[in-house]
Structures are given as C-alpha cells and as structure tokens.
Amino acid sequence: MQKSSILRRFLAAAGVVAGAMAAGAFAAEPAAAAVTYGCEYPRVCFYGNSDDASRKRNPTAGYKDAGYWQKLGPRSRGAYAVYNSRDDDTALLKFDLAGNDVVWCVRPNEYLFLNPTEYPGAVVELKISSRATCP
C-alpha cells in the first residue's frame, strides 16, 4: 500500500471522528428554557403595572424556589398579575386583607389578574407547591 493511500484513509477516519465529536458536543448543549409572557420556565412571575399585566409581558419579578412561604419584595408585592409557568406545581398567593390572611391558588400555566386597586393588602407572600392541582 502506498503512503499516500494510507494517509488519505487516516485523514478520512480522523474527519469522521472529528465530525462525530462535534455533533456530540452540539447535542449535549442544554435546551433553552421556554419563555411565555416574558416569564422563563420554571418560574412564577409577577407583573408590576397594569399596562404590562394587560399585555402579558415584562414581568417585574420571578420566583422558582418551592416548598416554603416567601415574602415578596417590592417588585412583586402588590402586583397587577401573576403567571405560573410551571407545568406540575401550583402557586399559593397569600393576601393580607385588612389583617386577615387569604390564600389563593394559581394552577400550572395559569395567568391571573390580581387587580391590587380592589384588594388594599395585595399579595404579600408566595409558596410554590408540588401539588399539581389546587386544593
């Protein structure tokens, strides 16, 4: 066998290996997170003004930790709307209505208008629950 023939076979085999490695590298990249209404999965997002809430865009805050009550910060407290982008978890919202705690449940993939002008206490805490349905 001639040297040029061996060299061509070696280069062809090296090209196949390099191509397979490159394809594997691209296949191993994680998929981009889904985004709905500007809310990246798996978050519960709040919309701080009526314009963005009515157009379902530009959330001002998003939460993804589950299993405990979280006090909402200034970008989510008193929000006009909330969207639960999670597929299998509910979001419990705690409202302080004249000193009384009221809890509402937001189903998976549900968008809910909160209308803080009607509820003076507004939403103050969030708990993301592993339950797929509201109680």
UniProtKB/TrEMBL annotation:
Keywords assigned by UniProt?
Signal
Q: Does the keyword Signal apply?
A: yes
Q: Which residues form the signal peptide?
A: 1-27
Superkingdom of this entry's organism? Bacteria
List the InterPro entries.
Answer: TAT_signal
Can you name this protein?
A: Peptidase inhibitor family I36
- Its source organism is Couchioplanes caeruleus subsp. caeruleus
Q: What is the lineage of its organism?
A: Bacteria, Bacillati, Actinomycetota, Actinomycetes, Micromonosporales
